[in-house]
Amino acid sequence: CRLDLSQTDRYYESVYNPCEISRVYISNQCVSSATPTEEMNGAGNLMDFLDEPFPDVSTYEDFHTIDWLREKSRDTDRHRKITSKSKESIWELIKSLLDAWSGWVVMLLIGLLSGTLAGVIDLAVDWMTDLKEGVCLSAFWYSHEQCCWTSNETTFDDRDKCPQWQKWAELMTGHAEGAGAYVLNYFLYILWALLFSFLAVSLVRVFAPYACGSGIPEIKTILSGFIIRGYLGKWTLLIKTVTLVLAVSSGLSLGKEGPLVHVACCCGNLFCSLFSKYSKNEGKRREVLSAAAAAGVSVAFGAPIGGVLFSLEEVSYYFPLKTLWRSFFAALVAAFTLRSINPFGNSRLVLFYVEYHTPWYMAELVPFILLGVFGGLWGTLFIRANIAWCRRRKTTQLGKYPVLEVIAVTGITAVLAYPNPYTRRSTSELISELFNDCGALESSQLCDYINNPNMSRPVDDIPDRPAGPGVYNALWQLALALIFKIVITIFTFGMKIPSGLFIPSMAVGAIAGRIVGIAVEQMAYHHHDWIIFKNWCRPGADCVTPGLYAMVGAAACLGGVTRMTVSLVVIMFELTGGLEYIVPLMAAAVTSKWVADAFGKEGIYESHIQLNGYPYLDVRDEFTHRTLATDVMRPRRNDPPLAVLTQDTTTVEDVETLIKDTDYNGFPVVVSRESERLIGFVQRRDLTLAIKNARQKQDGVVSSSVVYFTEDAPQLPASNPQPLKLRRILNLSPFTVTDHTPMETVVDIFRKLGLRQCLVTRSGYDRSVSQIYLEILEIQVRRRFPPPSSLKELEGILTEEWLQIPLETIHKLYESIPQRIEAVIAAKSRRTPYEIIFC
Predict the structure, then answer these.
(1) In this structure, are strands 707-708 and 724-725 parallel, antiparallel, or unpaired?
(2) Neighbour tally for 693: CB within 10 Å
(3) Average of pLDDT values for 638-659?
(4) pLDDT at position 652 over 70
(5) CA-CA distance, 476 to 276, in Å (whole number)?
């Protein structure tokens, strides 16, 4: 019987007849030679079609799962061959060294290309986001900030205003203020947003449908061993890069950080095709993709170490130690490349890098934990609402009009976002402002405090002050922005455009955290004599940092949505550049995960994997069903028998008919129909390709040609059709379990070994059909039972275990038993029939 998890529908097969592994081969390298006699009877031209490999053999079809053990074995054989050849000559030694260094070369190329693309995306998004509001007259390719940097007329008080930068209303009408200018700027803002989103969804729909979404659920599935052809292709890389810029610039509530992981993995897949070591081995390719995912997070957040941990914790399925080092190297190169481009002009890798100078106090753990609770609740709400909306999109007419949906959501977002300055700007700029501590040089509304004219302190140690009218106005605007972001993100994530979730989730948490931080700060200022503030917040001291609360809230909400913990804390630590704030971040991240896990174990990416029906066995899932392997095997007792091949009696026509009539991914190979001893397992794709190539290259192969999976060439009459030997595509050591193996163990085996299918044998000691035959024979001899005259009589003497064997098969054996016994007695007349049985 066979358990097959290689397709989305997960076909299961089994045989009633118990199976037995007749031989176990350490190596599949079998060599046979033809004898002169074989030349005469037509067997001399027998070909084994893996002696001369043909294209696509041992590869996988689209939407199938790879066999990790098979790929590991193939790489071991390849490495052993290279090592043995390296001793033959200097050239072979150089080739072996190049092969050893090819992995590091691929990591270098991935880091360089990922960092370059991330820098270009950051620059393009910065420019196109500002293009919705105005244009730089001196150089139209400059963003607002870059335009004013180059101006000599910019003052400190009006550093966001300069003559070279003009809004569209001022450029068209000459008036920068007034209701007419506001309405015109409002209209053009919506128009630009609609244009960007329309271009994004159109390019995705026409050229690369796989370029939509975040990409992380599919990356997780691919890294677990699933094949999705084209998802990491060149067109996907190109279109994803272009449309990511358009989607983020349109002002939709999405980010570029998640899609950057997809872009980096596309780069990794591109460079894998340059080296046969990776292009011909799907297992090795996935090691490279794991490292590429780390590089993607590295350039997304400027966090090389966090990127490695993200790949290890969140997306990778198989992560050996050497992949850890190579992932770190790729993330380092990518971060260095992005730093060299310096897209934000601040010598930082991300826009919202901050540094705090005020320590946190133990009493602040209470609001930090409350932010963690909020993050967990928000994560649960978002996952359930977003999955419900995406399921509705897939099952209703809404899914047939992706362009219209994107246009509608973009229009609603632009109309509601423009009046509020905190939703009008890009989400990265919003997070940057919320993270920032209020220094003496800040001009934001959030820093509109009432200053003491007698204050004389260093710039970095400004004491807590009473909030001014600008702060209270900003709080109302932030509250409205919080509600807007919570609602609109639910409908945005999952549309047919590139859309990341990291930045919107961080924005929700940062807004909530900043509001809580300002509230705690004002309580500490006005009620510093309370017992909770008395010990650590003296009058005139800088006690509370609202920006830190924003960062903790961002970590909590991102953790609640994605269920990340360790990698999330390290990413946020690398954003702040200080070890002092790790404990608040850890407290918030762990609390958000606990709260979210109380309502459901799946994060947003696992939920989308389940929604899309991808075959993904999550190592964190617990198998709670008390079932055995025999309970899930197919076919059942009343189902058609298992489709098997025999080792030396199946014809080419039989094989082609079997392939045509079934959709299984492989077939067990047995000795014969009567003695179903298991020889091995052959993949459907390899079988199809082998027969196709044999018809093209080997003369005499016809439909009546016998397919041989045996090691020795057969001796056939010259009049017989040319046989076909396919032993080299046969897996001689398939993984097996007994029918009484708990399904919890079977699932664990599939998870940890990466199996594609598992063959199931009956009873714990691999009972074969012939063993049960002998037991029946023993009963007959000892009790002097005559051979049963009918199937009904046979059924009466069989136990329940023997009833699993087709009665017709046993009856046929009974008919041949007397002749076999007489032959043995004639040869060994001194032994009784009972003794012969146990011989």
Answers:
(1) parallel
(2) 19
(3) 85
(4) yes
(5) 59
| Sign of the alpha-carbon dihedral angle for 655, 658, 663, 664 | negative
Q: How far apart are CA 383 and CA 600, in angstroms?
A: 10
Question: Which position has the token pair 């009833």?
Answer: 803
DSSP calls for 445-489: GGG-B---TT----TT-PPP--B-HHHHHHHHHHHHHHHHHHHHH
pLDDT in tens, 245-276: 999 999 999 999 889 999 999 999 999 999 98
Residues whose CB is less than 8 angstroms from the CB of residue 44 and which lie 6 or more positions away in sequence, other chains included? 34, 38
H/E segment holding residue 6: none
At 54 the pLDDT is: 52
Cα gap 492→485, rounded to integer Å: 10
Buried b (16+ CB within 10 A) or exposed e, 270-295: bbbeebebbebbbbbbbbbbbbbbbb
Q: Which two tokens stand for residue 231?
A: 């998802």
Burial class of residue 60 in the structure, from the number of CB atoms within 10 Å of its CB (0-12 exposed, 13-18 middle, 19+ buried) = buried
- Partners of 500 in the beta sheet? 255
CB atoms within 10 A of CB 525: 21
Angle of CA points 590, 596, 601, to nearest 5°: 105
> Mean pLDDT over residues 763-774, rounded?
41
- Is the separation of the CB atoms in 171 and 164 below 8 Å? no
Tokens of 118: 């991330």
- For the segment 427-455, what is each residue's pLDDT rounded down to a tens digit? 988 998 898 887 655 667 888 777 765 55
**pLDDT for res 598:** 93
Q: Rounded to the nearest 5 degrees, what angle is found at the Cα of 610, between the Cα atoms of 6 and 427?
A: 130
Q: Is the dihedral of CA 740, 745, 746, 749 positive or negative?
A: negative
**68 — phi, psi (to 5°)?**
-65, -40
β-pairing, 724-725 with 730-731?
Answer: unpaired
d(CA 343, CA 735): 52
> Could you tell me if 85 and 96 are in contact, meaning their C-beta atoms sit under 8 angstroms apart?
yes
Between helices 282-301 and 68-85, what is the axis angle to 10°?
A: 100
Are the C-beta atoms of residues 588 and 369 closer than 8 Å to each other?
yes
- Backbone φ and ψ of 665, nearest 5°: -90, 0
Tell me the Ramachandran region of residue 213: left when phi exceeds 0, alpha when psi lies from -120 to 50, beta otherwise: left
Q: What is the pTM of this model?
A: 0.80
Domains (range + CATH), the chain: 367-426+475-602 (1.10.3080.10), 629-784 (3.10.580.20)
Please confirm whether the linkage preceding 635 is cis (ω < 30° from 0): yes
CA–CA dist 564, 547 (Å, integer): 22
Q: What pLDDT is attached to residue 616?
A: 86
Report whether pLDDT(423) > 50: yes
Q: Residue 804 belongs to what H/E stretch?
A: none
Count of CA atoms in the C-beta half-sphere (13 A) of 384:
11
